[in-house]
MORN repeat-containing protein 3
Amino acid sequence: MPIVKYPRATEPLWHEWDRKAQKCGLRHRVYAVNGDQYTGEWLDNLKHGKGTQLWKCSRAIYSGDWKFGKRDGYGSYSILDPVTKEYKKVYTGWWKNDRKCGYGTTLYPRGERYEGEWSGGLRSGWGRMYYRDGSIYHGQWLQDQPHGQGMLRLPNGNRYEGGWKDGKKHGHGKFFYLDKGQLLEGIWAADIPKCGILIDFGRDEAPAPTQYPIPKV
């Protein structure tokens, strides 16, 4: 008696589509139960390749590379501006294991900007930070804080060059008071100069030099 094979009537058709997508890496649009939406490539039922994720609750969008279900590679993260109702990119750069890692640029809500290296979602490595008051820090970072060697330039042109620790001036450094035409070189600890030498520096070009020059020893 011949064996008759009946179709698997109990299996929905989307199962067959899903198997093909896993094998071929096809692009699909998938809606999660909470309303999140993903459009892009898949591998073994995981987001893998190029794709775009829209989070329903925050209305945030990520567009870029994915690896086994996580943001990994190059991509941009955007949020919806509540005033203009338009999307603006808040981070563009590299990701690893769903976190910022490598070189990238972040725009902060108050107009501040960071350009540089990241690790584990935190500013780490070399980077430049533009602050709201006009100050600029360029140097080393560790776990989201200036740490190592760096330079801070203030809005009035004065600047500090030297060591940093946990976001504060620490170690050997130089503070250029260009508005007064003086230079302080010494040792800092937790943002406080502990000892050093103060000399005239660029006094002739200073807009508001000290009343009397420092006598040479």
In short: The radius of gyration is 28 Å. The domain at 108-216 is CATH 2.20.110.10 (Histone H3 K4-specific methyltransferase SET7/9 N-terminal domain).
